[in-house]
Design goal:
This protein is α/β, with parallel strands linked by helices. It has 2 helices and 10 strands.
Length: about 110
């Protein structure tokens, strides 16, 4: 498997803790996959899900034993980003701080380049 490890994307400690908790409840490996798809109110939207293993060509970021994997095409749109888990009065969610996004929607789940 040709998995690239780089500083191209960051998984925060808060997000790592949340992924570990979700993975433990579901009996899965602590691997979060971030992908970018067309759609959403701003043009692109983030998709999160647990993965069984990294795939060939994925970029891998690891924090506290938890992995974040991003495919090659999505990485072009999120390079330099940080994935965090934020809890507030409005709810809790994974949040991407993306320096490449020119604009985003109010809910933070979609963006434009």
């Amino acid at each position: 498997m040709d998995t690239n490890t780089s500083e191209a994307i960051i998984l925060t400690a808060s997000a790592a803790r949340r992924v570990a908790a979700i993975a433990a409840k579901q009996g899965k490996p602590a691997i979060l996959r971030l992908s970018v798809e067309g759609g959403g109110c701003s043009g692109f939207q983030y998709r999160f899900g647990l993965a069984d293993a990294p795939e060939e060509g994925d970029t891998l970021a690891e924090t506290d034993g938890v992995a974040l994997v991003v495919d090659e095409m999505s990485l072009d749109l999120v390079r330099g980003s940080a994935v965090d888990f934020v809890e507030s009065l409005g709810g809790s969610a994974f949040q991407v701080t993306n320096p490449n996004a020119a604009s985003g929607c109010g809910c933070g789940s979609s963006f434009a380049i």
